[in-house]
Write a structure and sequence with these properties.
The structure holds 2 protein chains of 2 kinds. Chain A is an alpha+beta fold. Chain A is built from 5 helices and 9 strands; from the N terminus they run H-E-E-E-E-H-E-H-E-E-H-E-E-H. In chain A, the strands form 2 sheets. In chain A, strands 1-2-3-5-4 form a 5-stranded mixed beta sheet. Chain A has a 4-stranded antiparallel beta sheet with strand order 7-6-8-9, with helices on both faces. Chain A is globular, with a radius of gyration of 19 Å. Classes of the chains: A alpha+beta, B alpha+beta.
């Protein structure tokens, strides 16, 4: 390794911590690193109007996960695009170079971009802006676990701020399954040692799910339990998002 | 007041808060309880039947639900949501200011803060020679002599095409290319439709064009008849015209008026020629330099003046 670049390698330490977590997960009862209970989310901070140049923007901070989303448009689709009666939603998720503990990893995240698009597609009324495109750019400033749900919630807030017609706000929450336990809103280190994860994005006022991603090992009763937990958390998160929008509306009046 | 990064001192903060409170109390008393909604809030309609659901609303299990963040407006049976922050929605006859982004066959494409680009056809504008005739291929080749990319021009909304795209027209001498001035962009809701959008501020020798799309032009005054003559004359004189520069005094006025527009848009006050001139005069009266107009002191003063103005209006009414 070149001596000029300093990149602390914490591999051994991290592995040790993971093993410790795994050992803990066998037990039914243990404490989470930030002192939450298993069914407690991190404190959420949401604010609209984070970027001035955009038509709408929002900033979200859930624990150490920090995301900024800007929405541009609706603006005319590029010429090469075919004529379409409905609008297009273009989503792009980027990580800053300093977002993760391993530095220099920042780049476009194709997988998250596609998942963000799928989660929002159902909520935005695309028929209201034919021939045009709405661009959603999400930038993860710091990745502290459960990034995708935070991006989805923040993006729907930014869309609402931009005055784009939607059926409902989309709020999203993820849970991890570790051993016998189900943990809501997992942090990075909890995500590393999970057996399975579930990301749920829904429109709470309509009681409709826009996206459900299930990975890893799950048993049927656990899925049910996790779903219910997520739906309940989404409902509460939507309440916070709503009050954030109300607050900004009152400010501008 | 989203893009506000002022460093107020203690007294200024207290004064600003007092003025804002005062403004808020008037707003509460005048507006008939402007009900602001966010996405998916249900709008109470008191179970009235045959309600007309307008823009920004949708139906969910027999309830009227908002699909936008904004203010609920009611006109008889029609219920709609007026969005707080959205792009410009053109109406036929609006005066707009826009920027040419592309020259296409027989047409110019303009950016006007609408969701699509506006189209100005060659056939829907007066030719420089002023003769009414069919447009020929030669005219089409000479389009770049009229407007090129990045020119700021002023036009009128002619209508919509079946696919929703917007057509403009510029069939008068007052429309056309805008030169020697500043283009400012403000949120479109700050501009109300009025009879007059072209203003000639005599005392400053400045033209103020308040486009309905939120693009505001502040530039040196041009006589429309003179404009015609320059257009009529051939190229050498046109070059001469670009050579003669704007006098320093007029430039100062342009900057002062532009800063007044910026300040009003940051505070979120409606842009009218009266409010702009009033702000300019106030800045002159209190000897505020042009660059200090966007500072905290004049900001607080402007808010206070607006509060006073509304107070006097309320007193007059009662």
């Amino acid at each position: 390794m070149a001596a000029s670049t300093y990149s602390p390698s914490q591999g051994a330490e991290r592995r040790q911590r993971q093993q410790q977590m795994r050992r803990l997960s066998i037990q039914s009862d243990w404490d989470r690193s930030d002192g939450r209970s298993f069914i407690q989310c991190r404190p959420a901070f949401l604010r609209t109007g984070a970027a001035n140049a955009a038509s709408g923007s929002a900033y979200a901070e859930f624990g150490t996960t920090k995301v900024i989303v800007s929405v541009f448009g609706p603006r005319e689709s590029k010429k090469a695009m075919m004529y379409s009666d409905i609008g297009r939603l273009n989503c792009n998720v980027t990580f800053t170079t300093f977002a993760t503990s391993l530095r220099g990893q920042g780049s476009d995240n194709k997988e998250y971009s596609a998942m963000l698009h799928k989660a929002l597609e159902g909520a935005v009324i695309l028929e209201t802006f034919p021939k045009t495109t709405v661009d959603v750019f999400a930038l993860v400033l710091e990745s502290g676990g459960s990034d995708l749900p935070v991006i989805i919630s923040c993006a729907s807030l930014a869309l609402a701020d931009a005055g784009i017609m939607m059926y409902d706000l989309v709020s999203s929450v993820s849970v991890s399954c570790i051993g016998k336990n189900i943990l809501i809103d997992p942090t990075n280190e909890e995500e590393v040692c999970q057996d399975g994860s579930l990301v749920l994005a829904c429109m709470p006022a309509r009681n409709e799910v826009t996206q459900l991603t299930l990975t890893g090992e799950w048993s049927l009763p656990k899925i049910n339990e996790a779903m219910e937990l997520c739906m309940d958390a989404c409902l509460k998160l939507a309440g916070i998002m709503r009050s954030c929008l109300k607050e900004s509306a009152n400010l501008s009046n | 007041m989203r893009d506000l990064h002022l460093s107020l001192n203690q007294t200024q903060r207290v004064r600003l808060q007092a003025a804002l409170d005062q403004l808020e109390s008037y707003a509460a008393s005048t507006a008939a309880a402007a009900a602001s909604v966010t996405v998916a809030d249900s709008i109470p309609v008191n179970h009235e039947d045959n309600i007309l659901k307008g823009h920004g609303t949708s139906d969910l299990d027999g309830q009227v639900v908002a699909t936008l963040c904004g203010v609920v407006e009611r006109v008889n049976k029609l219920v709609y949501v007026r969005a707080l922050r959205s792009r410009y929605k053109p109406e036929v006859g609006d005066i707009i200011v826009g920027r040419v982004i592309e020259i296409a066959p027989k047409r110019w494409r303009l950016e006007i803060n609408f969701s699509q680009d506006a189209v100005l056809m060659l056939s829907s504008m007066n030719l420089p020679d002023g003769i009414q005739r069919r447009r020929t291929a030669v005219d089409e080749l000479n389009m770049r002599s009229i407007f090129v990319e990045n020119d700021v021009i002023c036009a009128e909304v002619r209508g919509f095409q079946h696919d929703g795209s917007l057509q403009l027209q510029a069939r008068s001498q007052k429309y056309g290319k805008l030169e020697k001035g500043q283009l400012l962009t403000v949120p479109p809701y700050l501009v109300k439709r009025r009879k007059q959008h072209f203003h000639h501020l005599d005392q400053y020798n400045v033209d103020l064009i308040v486009g309905c799309n939120g693009f505001v032009w502040v530039g040196e005054h041009v006589e429309t008849s003179e404009k015609e003559s320059t257009l009529l004359s051939d190229k050498p004189s046109g070059k001469q015209e670009t050579d003669n520069s704007v006098p320093l005094e007029t430039r100062r006025h342009i900057c002062r008026i532009a800063n007044a527009v910026r300040l009003l848009s940051v505070i979120g006050l409606t842009l009218t020629v009266e409010s702009v001139t009033e702000t300019v005069e106030a800045s002159l009266r209190s000897n505020i330099e042009i660059n200090e107009m966007l500072g905290s002191e004049f900001y607080v003063q402007t808010v206070e003046r607006e509060a006073q103005r509304r107070a006097s209006m309320v007193r007059k009414r009662s």
